Amino acid sequence: MARYTGPSCKLCRREGEKLFLKGARCLSPKCALERRSYPPGMHGKGAQWRRRRESDYSRQLREKQKARRIYGVLERQFRRYFALAQHRQGLTGANLLIILESRLDNVVYRLGFADSRAQARQLVAHGHFDLNGRRNNVSSTLVKPGDVLSVHKESQRKTYFKGMDQQLDERQAPRWLSLDTAGLSGQVLHLPTREDIDASLKEQLIVEYYSR
After folding, report:
1. Per mean pLDDT, which range of 43-47, 82-86, 170-174, 204-208 is the poorest?
2. How far is it, in rounded angstroms, from Cα 102 to Cα 84?
3. How many helices (H) and strands (E) does the chain have?
4. CA R_g for the chain
5. What CATH code would you report for 103-188?
6. Sheet strands (E) in the chain
7. What are the pLDDT digits (tens) for 43-100?
């Protein structure tokens, strides 16, 4: 499975804002954007002035790249999601974000079982979660209303998940999900709406990019 393996902090610096790719580190003084707020590369500091003269295409491209990086999706799969969003009723941009939020790794992250989507993808890939009672290691699986996600029985005995119920008590799941902290499980109540998605994305720019 292809995936980005480079430094996550460089992605935030390139977009000029925190994408929260590394969990708690993004909220600490160790955050690379706090220490170096300019783009990466040998000409990073000198590139700041160019951001003030962005073309329409550049803004559209940057928004598309930002969405891909937030959700950890590569270009080919992102295009498939956009095509799927076009065939659904409603606004294409909102549909695209709903599809991205419906990914299994994102649901694991939203429920609080992982500090970042990258960590959630790793946990899913290692088979630590069941979907509707069956082990699922495909992080791109799209969940549906009524689906139940739970930590695999054998995985509950691992150090990572021991005592997690106490950590989950301190976190609040989004309203489209329900969380059972004692049972280390969650359920999809309904698909999220645009108002439920807190990602700072201008989805219309993404639609314009693919509609050129």
Report:
1. 43-47
2. 13
3. 9, 5
4. 18
5. 3.10.290.10
6. 129-131, 134-135, 148-151, 177-180, 185-188
7. 556 555 455 567 899 889 989 998 998 898 999 999 999 999 999 999 999 999 999 9
Structure tokens at 68: 């891909």
8-100+199-210 CATH, one of 1.10.1050.10, 2.40.30.170, 3.40.50.1760, 2.40.128.270: 1.10.1050.10
Q: pTM to 2 decimals?
A: 0.81
CA distance 189 to 142: 14
Smallest CA-to-CA distance from 131 within 101, 104, 99 is with 104
Query: Are 45 and 38 contacting, i.e. CB atoms less than 8 angstroms apart?
Result: yes
> In this structure, what token pair is assigned to residue 177?
């999900």
